[in-house]
């Protein structure tokens, strides 16, 4: 078995792991690099030779740092199947089409206002490219082995996000497990990740490999922020991932309303067409969630859906206190930028980031205390309050990662710690070595290993 680490080996994004096993050359995930510019520039590099002869792609889940490079891969000539759970296939359609739309819009805006460094800004891929990639997707039932060439593929629910799964590739005595992103034991929406019994080789994520989730009550803290902000005549802006995080926030806001912690008549706006589509998918796949059916049914009661760009722009300049949920979650693009541009200079407002902010993103800069932020080519002063609610993260923390691995009945011959910032990956590597007694290492970007 040979593994080529083409992404998420020295960073938390760009998940791409090429595995040669049996007669198959399988790419585990096909994600976009996000965050620091030096990482984002990898998305624009020519398609590497290792991605030109693939037999198949298997997705762990639909987040763009795991699926967002698929249209570029297909555009570059990939013609094979893309396997994923049924819910991941549904979410990928929403995410990839929206990603393509945003890239087209960003290119048009850069050309219109002349802030591109290139003679003509172009999108990485278009909606047509995304549609072609989606045509390659093949849903696989979870918990069942499927034959791909002479390799068995099994998807095991991993919490974290609707449809998210760990991936097992096996052939004779070879068995590789890729954790994908693992969810929390007490996630608001998703059940805990299912445990696995063994692996010859393990690829485990390490997003929170050096941290424990805070013990604070995120629901109560958010309620306090909303009450304080409304009391001074301001509004709360929550940049949110449209899939998973937006639905968790809606659930929390409805619970705060029901408990009388925030005003019943306080306007709540969901300004993200993708989040609206994803919410419908979460309700359709409600059997995969841990949320009572009644709450899922009432998830969007009295929530105002913002559909058109014109409505969104009017909302940005509203004088009435409200709560706005808008994508993207790290303020890297999308409608949230218009709201941030309008609200950041006003000290009455409060910007709340619920969850992980990758290094180099606007969200990370703001959480770190930036006094200005660049949006659409100009610097905007930040006078609004900024808070970071880590308790809303959908990732297992360091202790939960160790607990998931400790359930293995026999240790892997080798553990590769991936999908984390360097300090987080190395911290988890040490815990795997010292607490579990397993051999573990952090692979380098573009490294190939034979196991």
**What can be said about the biggest beta sheet?**
7 strands, mixed
Kindly state the number of beta strands: 22
Percentage of β-strand residues: 15-25%
- Structural class call reads alpha/beta
Q: Enter the CATH topology name of the largest domain.
A: Metallo-beta-lactamase, Chain A
CATH class of the largest domain: Alpha Beta
Cross-sheet strand order for the largest sheet: 6-5-4-3-2-1-22
So how many helices? 14
User: What is the terminal-to-terminal distance?
Assistant: 6 Å
Total domain count: 2
CATH architecture field of the largest domain: 4-Layer Sandwich
**Which whole number gives the mean pLDDT?**
94
Q: Would you identify the CATH H-level superfamily of the largest domain?
A: Ribonuclease Z/Hydroxyacylglutathione hydrolase-like
Q: List low-pLDDT spans.
A: none
Helical content stands at 25-40%
Radius of gyration equals 21 Å
Silhouette = globular
């Amino acid at each position: 078995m040979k593994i080529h680490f083409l992404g998420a080996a020295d960073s938390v994004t760009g998940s791409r792991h090429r595995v040669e096993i049996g007669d198959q050359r399988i790419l585990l995930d096909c994600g976009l690099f996000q965050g620091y510019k030096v990482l984002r520039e990898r998305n624009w590099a020519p398609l590497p030779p290792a991605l030109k002869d693939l037999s198949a792609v298997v997705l762990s889940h639909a987040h763009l740092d795991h699926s967002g490079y698929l249209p570029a891969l297909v555009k570059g000539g990939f013609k094979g199947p893309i396997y994923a759970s049924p819910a991941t296939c549904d979410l990928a359609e929403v995410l990839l089409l929206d990603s393509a739309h945003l890239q087209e819009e960003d290119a048009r805006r850069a050309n219109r206002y002349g802030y591109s460094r290139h003679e003509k800004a172009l999108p990485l891929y278009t909606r047509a490219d995304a549609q072609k990639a989606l045509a390659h997707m093949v849903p696989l039932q979870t918990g069942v082995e499927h034959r791909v060439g002479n390799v068995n593929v099994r998807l095991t629910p991993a919490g974290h996000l609707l449809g998210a799964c760990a991936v097992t590739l096996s052939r004779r005595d070879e068995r590789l497990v890729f954790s994908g992103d693992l969810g929390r034991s007490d996630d608001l929406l998703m059940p805990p990740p299912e445990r696995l019994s063994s692996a010859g080789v393990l690829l485990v994520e390490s997003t929170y490999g050096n941290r424990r989730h805070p013990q604070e009550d995120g629901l109560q803290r958010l309620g306090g922020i909303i009450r304080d902000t409304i009391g001074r005549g301001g509004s709360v802006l929550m940049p949110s991932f449209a899939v998973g995080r937006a639905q968790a926030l809606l659930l929390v806001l409805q619970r705060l309303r029901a408990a009388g912690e925030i005003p019943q008549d306080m306007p709540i706006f969901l300004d993200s067409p993708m989040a609206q589509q994803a919410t419908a998918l979460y309700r359709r796949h409600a059997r995969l969630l841990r949320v009572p059916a009644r709450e899922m049914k009432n998830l969007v009661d009295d929530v105002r859906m913002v559909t058109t760009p014109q409505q969104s722009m009017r909302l940005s300049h509203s004088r009435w206190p409200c709560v706005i949920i808008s994508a993207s979650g790290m303020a890297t693009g999308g409608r949230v930028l218009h709201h941030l541009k309008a609200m950041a200079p006003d000290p009455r407002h409060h910007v709340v980031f619920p969850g992980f902010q990758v290094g180099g993103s606007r969200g990370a800069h703001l959480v770190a205390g930036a006094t200005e932020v660049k949006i659409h080519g100009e610097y905007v002063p930040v006078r609004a309050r900024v808070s970071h609610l880590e308790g809303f993260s959908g990732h297992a923390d360091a202790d939960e990662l160790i607990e998931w691995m400790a359930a293995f009945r026999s240790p892997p011959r080798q553990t590769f710690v991936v999908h984390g910032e360097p300090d987080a990956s190395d911290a988890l590597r040490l815990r795997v070595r010292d607490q579990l007694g397993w051999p573990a290492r952090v692979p380098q970007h573009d490294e190939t290993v034979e196991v």
